Amino acid sequence: MNVIDKALTILAKIPTTQARIVVTIGLTVATGIMYFATAFVPGYEWLGFLALMSGLDVAQFHSKRKTAWTPAVQNGHNEKVNIDEIIDEIEEETTTDNPEIG
Prior knowledge:
This protein is mainly alpha-helical and 102 residues long. It is built from four helices and no strands. The longest helix has 22 residues, at 16-37.
């Protein structure tokens, strides 16, 4: 196995989201170092590119890790809580002549 095959194998196994994030952070840090070390002022196109890449990284990271979950069951019950039914029950209790309400 030659060097190119090893490089392609490593590239095939690398997590793409983390690779994108590392590259974007590296480019941003390098731009910041160039800005502070020299009188180089990056163009708006380059800053826009960095902002776009950062936004895409965040979107990809979020979409891969978004969890599809159902709401947690409240009070240890095994059934889902229907908030509309609870509100209706409270409204019925408050509209009837209930001596406890006063």
